[in-house]
Amino acid sequence: MNDKKAVKHNLLDAGCREQTADFVEQLYLAGRLSDALHEMKAFRCDLMDAVHQCHRRVDCLDYLIRQTEKEIKKGNLKS
Q1: Nearest CA among 54, 66, 7, 58 for reference residue 31
Q2: How far is 7 from 72, CA to CA, in rounded Å?
């Protein structure tokens, strides 16, 4: 990466905590690219787990919305 400070900036933009971004930046600046890559991949896995969890929640809500819309179309409204 051309601008070494861009590493920390990009990590923060990705949602890394300041402490994590500092740690990975230090690994990068020390030339420990494999270690920095390992940390970035671990953070990415955490992010993907969060995405999947949110997706499941959205799916549950979508199901409930569809079921409620079906009930409304059937005329099963109760006040």
Answers
A1: 7
A2: 52
* CB contact burial 15-49 (16+ within 10 A = b; e otherwise): ebeeebbebbbebbeeeeeeebeebbeebeeeeee
Dihedral sign, Cα of residue 55, residue 57, residue 63, residue 67: negative
Please list, in sequence order, all residues whose beta carbon lies within 8 angstroms of the beta carbon of residue 5, skipping any fewer than 6 positions away: 25
Residue 18 and residue 12 in contact, taking contact as beta carbons nearer than 8 Å: yes
How do residues 20-29 score in pLDDT, each as one tens digit? 999 999 999 9
In angstroms, what CA-CA distances link 23 with 7, 16, 18, 49, 75?
11, 11, 9, 22, 59
Q: Which two tokens stand for residue 48?
A: 């993907």
> Length of the chain, please?
79
pTM exceeding 0.70: yes
